[in-house]
């Protein structure tokens, strides 16, 4: 069963990457469909809360013309003066995401707890398919949280950048949104209060990667992998006698 869960985790992420490459809103729709299914087979209060958060984030992004959080998808960048585009850009983003994931994983082991915090979604149906998809649901929550964080950051940067200089506004927006998301994880996912600073730094790292790459794939990959690995590990603990 864990092998099937890993295959599904990888397959879901590959489909998400290909869909968003073709059209960003296909990727948004893929996440939405995933959580509609999660709503059907899991704790409805929890899944509906995330569905609502995601919809609010996307609607706010579309409503405020000065920000382009969900539509700000790039397929090229310059690295050391060389242009990287298409699937090469995706590869670079995935590598950056893997680096961030390993950084979070190493820090989590050193401090004795996952610094990002991973929800434990209660599947309310005995369906084997739903149980097997549980890691996918929990991993994709990371992308929803990222979307919310990026929208909050873009709004904060728009506000504080107008009040102060762009650099000061950037720093304030980074710290403020990172702290908000860190507190959310401490309260919602039973993350130890002592790990708040690490959770905040993790979200600052996610936001910075989005800001620098002008694309969320690296951050989404890191958060998705973190949640997915923790979720599969839980499954292994359950099946191990």
Summarize the structure.
With 241 residues, the protein is mostly helical. The chain has 9 helices and 2 strands, in the order αααββαααααα.
Order of neighbouring strands in the sheet with most strands: 1-2
The low-confidence runs, each spanning 5 or more residues with pLDDT under 50, are: none
Beta strands, count = 2
Structural class: mainly alpha
Global morphology: globular
Q: Which sheet architecture does the biggest sheet show?
A: 2 strands, antiparallel
**With helices defined by DSSP (H or I, 4 residues minimum), what is the helix count?**
9
Number of spatially distinct domains: 1
- Secondary-structure element pattern, one letter each: HHHEEHHHHHH
Strand content: under 5%
**Overall pLDDT score:** 86
From the N-terminal CA to the C-terminal CA, the straight-line distance is 15 Å
Q: Radius of gyration, Cα only, in angstroms?
A: 18 Å
Assign a percent range to the helix content.
over 70%
Search tags:
single chain, mainly alpha, 9 helices, about 240 residues, two-stranded antiparallel ribbon
Write the layout of secondary structure elements.
Layout: H1 2-22, H2 24-41, H3 44-63, E1 76-79, E2 82-85, H4 86-111, H5 128-132, H6 134-163, H7 166-188, H8 196-213, H9 217-239
Antiparallel strand pairs: 1-2
Task: Describe the fold and architecture.
This protein is mostly helical and 241 residues long. The chain has one domain. The chain contains 9 helices and 2 strands, in the order αααββαααααα. It has a two-stranded antiparallel ribbon. The chain starts with a helix and ends with a helix.
